[in-house]
Design a protein that fits this description.
The chain has helices at residues 5-15, 21-26, 32-39, 62-70, 78-85, 121-124, 142-151, 153-156, 158-170, 176-185, 189-200; strands spanning 19-20, 44-47, 50-52, 75-76, 95-100, 113-118, 127-132, 135-140. The protein is of the alpha+beta class. It folds into 2 domains: 5-52; 62-200, Beta Polymerase, domain 2, CATH 3.30.460. The strands form 3 sheets. Strands 1-3-2 form a 3-stranded antiparallel sheet. The protein has a 3-stranded mixed sheet with strand order 4-5-6. The longest helix is centred in the last third of the chain and has 13 residues, at 158-170.
Length: 201
């Protein structure tokens, strides 16, 4: 005998950080059941089309889990990747997300997004998969993020790029070979050269 829709939805929400209206549809559950459970206080709405159990633990990277759930093709990048890796002093109010150039721009009311477009190897290189609140989240590696920060130095500030480079090098978060490889992928190896020489001085 099939379990009632309520039980199936709550079980789904217990296994995931966030359950979406699409998840409910795929499980053969009408979207009105989500609305009913929210009204009864058994689920809470955290963003448009995204729901969670009220007592579900929230981590400091909760926003990244929400974005990864809503935009599975995106990769956490730039300032948000630095923050996730614990590098530098930046605390971005928005989630920085990379998408491939031809992809449609995601529209989220929450959390706020800063979307950048990468293409080819610059998008595909250096992607790591991490689990946050039960959600698979793609984040660029430390070395790739630093190369990206130098590429986007006019947006985020050269001082931010230099700080990230120094901090990550001091903590041995990348090898010089890794950084040089990603710097070439992002076409910033010439820009970065004097700063890399500074590290070895």
């Amino acid at each position: 005998m099939a379990r009632p829709a309520r039980e199936r939805l709550l079980s789904l929400a217990a296994r995931r950080a966030v359950v979406t209206a699409r998840d409910a549809t795929r499980a053969g559950i009408h979207g009105q059941e989500l609305t009913r459970l929210v009204a009864q206080g058994e689920l809470e709405r955290v963003a448009r089309g995204q729901y969670r159990l009220p007592d579900q633990p929230i981590t400091e990277h909760h926003a990244l889990a929400l974005v990864a759930r809503a935009v599975p093709g995106g990769v956490i990048c730039l300032l948000s990747a630095l923050d996730y890796h614990g590098i530098g002093t930046q605390l971005p109010p928005d989630v920085w997300l990379a998408i491939e150039r031809r992809r449609r721009q995601p529209r989220l009311t929450y959390p706020p997004l800063r979307v950048v477009t990468f293409t080819g190897a610059a998008f595909k290189a250096g992607i790591e998969a991490h689990e946050i609140e039960g959600q698979r989240v793609k984040v660029y590696s430390v070395a790739k993020t630093i190369a990206d920060i130098f590429k986007a130095r006019n947006k985020v500030g050269l001082d931010v790029a230099i700080e990230a480079l120094r901090d990550a090098w001091r903590e041995r978060r990348f090898t010089m070979a890794e950084l040089e490889r990603h710097a070439r992928t992002c076409h910033v190896h010439r820009v970065m050269r004097p700063y890399l020489e500074m590290l070895g001085a």
